[in-house]
C-alpha cells in the first residue's frame, strides 16, 4: 500500500517494537529516513513515528503541556494526566522546510480500572468517558501549541502539517481545537476570503476526500473519519488531491481484544498531495 501511494513523508501511529518498524522499512521501495517518538507508556509502548524519503533536518519530541495549562483528572482515585504520556513527534524535512507533526490522541475506546472494557455501571461509564475526553482535549491543546510555534503568524509562507489518528471526527471539539482561529474552512463561503486569521490557521483536508472514500474507520458498522491531515495556508492553497486508500477496514467494537494479532490495520490511511 505504501509503495503504491509513494508518499515523500509518512506519519505512523501505534508502532510497538522498533524492530517491527525496521522490518517494514526493509521491504519498502527506495531509502527512508526514520524517526520515532521517545515518549510513550511503559505498560502500553505504542508510539508515533515518521518516515521520509527527504532528509530529516530537525526533530522535536512534543509532550509537555503549554504554560498555564494544568494536568487533568484521569481516574476515580484522583489520578491526573499531564504531560502527554504518548507524545507527538515533529520532524522538518527537505529543502522546503516542511514541518510535520505526527500525533495519536487519546482513544475513543474506553478502558476501566483493572483492564476492563465494560463499566460496572453507567455512572462509571460517564466518568471515564469524561476523563478520556479531558485527556484528548489536553493533548489537542498541546499539539496546537506546537503548531502555534511552527506557524508563528507566518502560515501564508510556512509549510506546516499536523496529521495522525486524532480519535474524533472533523467537527468534534478536540479536532476543532487544532484548527486555530475559526472561519475559512474548506467548503464555506469564507474559504477564498483572506483574513487576519489565515497566518495562524490549519485547514482540515477531510472535505477534499471523495465522498465515497470519506471514512477511515468503521465502528459498530458506522463509517467515521478520525484520521486527519491539517495543513497551513501555504499548503492548503497548493493541495492537489486528498484521498484514502479506497479500502474499508473491518468494523470494530468498543472491545479491542478481538482485533489483537490481526494482520491488517483497522484504519484506512489518508494521503494528501501538494504542488510545491
Question: Would you give an account of this structure?
Answer:
With 276 residues, the chain is α+β, with helices and mostly antiparallel strands. The protein has one domain: Deoxyribonuclease I, Chain A. It is 19% helix and 26% strand. The chain contains 5 helices and 15 strands. It has a 6-stranded mixed sheet with strand order 4-7-8-9-13-10. Strands 1-3-2 form a 3-stranded antiparallel sheet, with helices on one face. A two-stranded antiparallel ribbon has the order 5-6. The longest helix has 30 residues.
What's the helix and strand layout?
Elements: H1 2-5, E1 9-15, H2 18-27, E2 33-36, E3 47-52, E4 56-62, E5 72-73, E6 80-81, E7 88-93, E8 98-104, H3 122-151, E9 160-165, H4 173-177, E10 203-204, E11 217-219, E12 222-224, E13 227-231, H5 233-236, E14 239-244, E15 270-274
Parallel strand pairs: 8-9
Antiparallel strand pairs: 1-3, 2-3, 4-7, 5-6, 7-8, 9-13, 10-13, 11-12, 14-15
Features of this protein?
Deoxyribonuclease I, Chain A; 15 strands; 19% helix; 26% strand; single chain; 276 residues; 3-stranded antiparallel β-sheet; alpha+beta
Write a concise synopsis of the structure shown.
19% of the residues lie in helices and 26% in strands.
Helix content: 10-25%
Strand content: 25-35%
Q: Could you tell me how far the N terminus lies from the C terminus, measured between alpha carbons in angstroms?
A: 24 Å
Order of helices and strands: HEHEEEEEEEHEHEEEEHEE
Shape: globular
| Low-pLDDT regions | none
- What's the level 1 CATH class? Alpha Beta
Based on secondary structure, the structural category is: alpha+beta
From the alpha-carbon coordinates, what is the Rg to the nearest angstrom?
A: 18 Å
Major sheet description: 6 strands, mixed
Number of domains as seen in the coordinates: 1
Number of strands: 15
**Second-tier CATH architecture:** 4-Layer Sandwich
Strand order of the largest sheet: 4-7-8-9-13-10
Number of alpha- plus pi-helical segments: 5
The average pLDDT score comes to: 95
CATH topology: Deoxyribonuclease I, Chain A
